[in-house]
Amino acid sequence: MEKDTLSVVIPTMNEEKTIGDVIDSLRYLSPMEIIVVDTDSKDRTREIAEKKGARVIQEPRRGYGVAYKTGISNCKGDLVLCLDGDGTYPSEVAGTLIELLKINDVDFISCDRMTLRNQNSYTNLHFIGNSVLNLAIFLFYGFRIIDSQSGMWLFRNKIFKKMVRLSDGMSFSQDIKIEAFIHGTIIEVPIRYGVRMTKPKLNTWHDGFANLFAIFTSMVNRR
Question: What is the pTM of this model?
């Protein structure tokens, strides 16, 4: 049986302090391709990523979902690993995730930051907000999830091709999990979320309410 090929997608915006280390930390997964989708960084992010061997795609359009759609649509691998370029996600567990995907014969693994959280990396405010969104997803879809807002996932490329309702914005993170639940099989794996070194892109209150509204409107539109 041929070994599954792997693509890694990393969206970036001004991540020069961390992107090099993130790429280096993934080298043990070789052979693979790394795609960095850069949304108009003003620092050396693109230059560093290219020197480290990543394929850099410039995406001038803003939007978390836009960046991921651009990156994933360019993937050649059978499996796709997605994570941020700020070093907060433990890239060293990627090999284990691949093994778990195959052992459990699932289509999608989402990394759960909440089970092993601490106050330095994941505050009570974020915990409460995430819990509200998780409850809304359960009420509307009957889908129980611990961390609907996690930004590290591993999935089979073929399942992504079935996904149709994916936001261009921050709600992409919850959308991709809902779509995985609808079109395939999904499990969660606890991880230790790291402390962010760069300025966060997330606006806690604005994006939280926007994601809650997106859950409601998505469900209405499916009817």
Answer: 0.89
